[in-house]
Amino acid sequence: MGAPQLQECFSSNKQLLEEHSHVYGFENSGDIFLDVATFLYKRNRVQLSHSKTTKRKKIPFNPADEWEVQVSLPLAELVAKSLLSYEDTHLLS
């Protein structure tokens, strides 16, 4: 998932994505599609799955890290459900 896929999926409802992006750690640079893709991928997936000693990582059972992941879940769920729905409606004909 990247910014182009988000832009295609949310092109008619960009406001919905903007409304759900007000979560801790989210940084708005003005490109909501790129910002959401970066937040979900780099600030969550990569830090959970590819932790390196030289880079920021999320540590299991660390209350602060668990909280950061937990507050990002509604945005991740909205994106996942929207992309699946978009695929079912527009791409699988």
Describe the structure.
With 93 residues, the chain is mainly alpha-helical. The chain has helices at residues 3-10, 14-20, 32-49, 63-91. It has one domain (3-91). The chain is built from 4 helices and no strands. The chain is elongated and about 40 Å long.
Short description:
The chain has 4 helices and no strands.
Written as H for each helix and E for each strand, in order along the chain, the element string is HHHH
Number of strand elements: 0
**Could you estimate the helical fraction of the residues in percent?**
55-70%
Low-confidence stretches: none
Instruction: Note the gap between the termini.
Output: 21 Å
Mean pLDDT: 88
Radius of gyration (Å): 14 Å
Mind describing the biggest β-sheet?
A: none
Please report the number of helical segments.
4
Which word captures the global form?
A: elongated
Work out the strand percent.
Answer: under 5%
Set down the secondary structure blueprint.
Blueprint: H1 3-10, H2 14-20, H3 32-49, H4 63-91
Helix pairs in contact: 1-3, 1-4
List keywords for this structure.
93 residues, mainly alpha, 4 helices
